[in-house]
């Protein structure tokens, strides 16, 4: 069997390391994975690159490939949530989260919209804030610093998490990212992860699509009970049946 080239959202890196190892042991088929912002990966595919499987942090990017006839049908394989990582100081951990977000004293960082779905989910949060607190959502949008996930963004060093790297380096006080990182971020006492409660909770559906039938077994493994259990252990919610 030929090797598989996988393009996958960067937020899947921690979970896919053990998942792909388990698949390769079972299938005896090598997988080479390239991780990055899903929007940029989708653009590379549109420009002619051809992985056998694309796993995105949203449904829109693989759906576009399906609509173009480049890929097969999109399947949701995992779910995530937006959360807020803050510098671990009382002013950011003890006040209600909307007050923290709306306080212009603090530097707020996100990933880059369009290039990275995490940035798009941050915009959804700002729109939700605007619905409930007129003017605040628009102010958040103007303040937000898209520091990672873009074509020209400075890379996050290998082995570092974006929230930890940006806050520890003094580039931000608050970072909007995925809840799946919460277990890894818990190892840093200088940080605190705060969940977004209704009406501000933003959920993310992760979608995959096949570009080559040679990756069918990998797609099936991701959707299998074993694949779902590995994703769950790494902070993802199971896909809705």
Provide a descriptive summary of the structure in words.
This is Substrate-binding domain-containing protein. InterPro entries: ModA/WtpA (IPR050682). The chain starts with a strand and ends in an 8-residue tail after the last helix. The protein has helices spanning 13-27, 38-46, 60-67, 90-93, 97-102, 117-132, 136-143, 162-168, 182-185, 216-223, 225-233, and strands spanning 4-9, 31-36, 53-56, 75-87, 108-111, 145-148, 174-178, 191-195, 203-210. It is built from eleven helices and nine strands. With 241 residues, it is α/β, with parallel strands linked by helices. It is globular. The longest helix has 16 residues, at 117-132. The chain is 39% helix and 23% strand. Helix 1 links the parallel strand 1 and strand 2 (31-36). Strands 1, 2, 3, 4, 5, 6, 7, 8 and 9 form a nine-stranded mixed β-sheet that branches. The mean pLDDT is 96.
Task: Give a short summary of the structure.
The protein has 241 residues and is of the alpha/beta class.
């Amino acid at each position: 069997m030929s090797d598989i080239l996988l393009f996958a959202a960067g937020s899947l890196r921690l979970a896919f390391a053990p998942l792909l190892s388990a698949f390769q042991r079972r299938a005896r088929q090598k997988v080479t994975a390239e991780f990055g912002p899903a929007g940029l990966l989708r653009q590379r595919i549109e420009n002619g690159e051809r992985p056998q499987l694309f796993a995105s942090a949203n449904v829109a990017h693989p759906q576009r490939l399906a609509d173009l006839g480049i890929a097969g049908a999109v399947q949701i394989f995992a779910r995530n949530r937006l959360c807020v990582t803050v510098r671990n100081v009382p002013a950011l951990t003890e006040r209600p989260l909307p007050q923290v977000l709306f306080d212009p004293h603090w530097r707020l960082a996100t990933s880059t919209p369009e290039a990275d779905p995490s940035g798009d989910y941050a915009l959804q949060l700002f729109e939700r804030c605007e619905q409930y607190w007129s003017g605040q959502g628009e102010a958040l949008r103007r303040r937000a610093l898209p520091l990672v996930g873009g074509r020209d963004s400075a890379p996050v060093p290998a082995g570092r998490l974006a929230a930890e790297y940006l806050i520890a380096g003094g580039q931000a006080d608050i970072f909007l990212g995925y809840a799946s990182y919460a277990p890894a971020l818990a190892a840093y006492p200088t940080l605190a992860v705060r969940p977004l409660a209704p009406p501000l909770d933003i959920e993310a559906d992760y979608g995959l699509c096949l570009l080559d039938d040679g990756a069918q077994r990998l797609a099936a493994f991701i959707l299998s009970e074993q694949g779902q259990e590995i994703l769950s252990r790494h902070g993802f919610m199971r896909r809705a049946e």
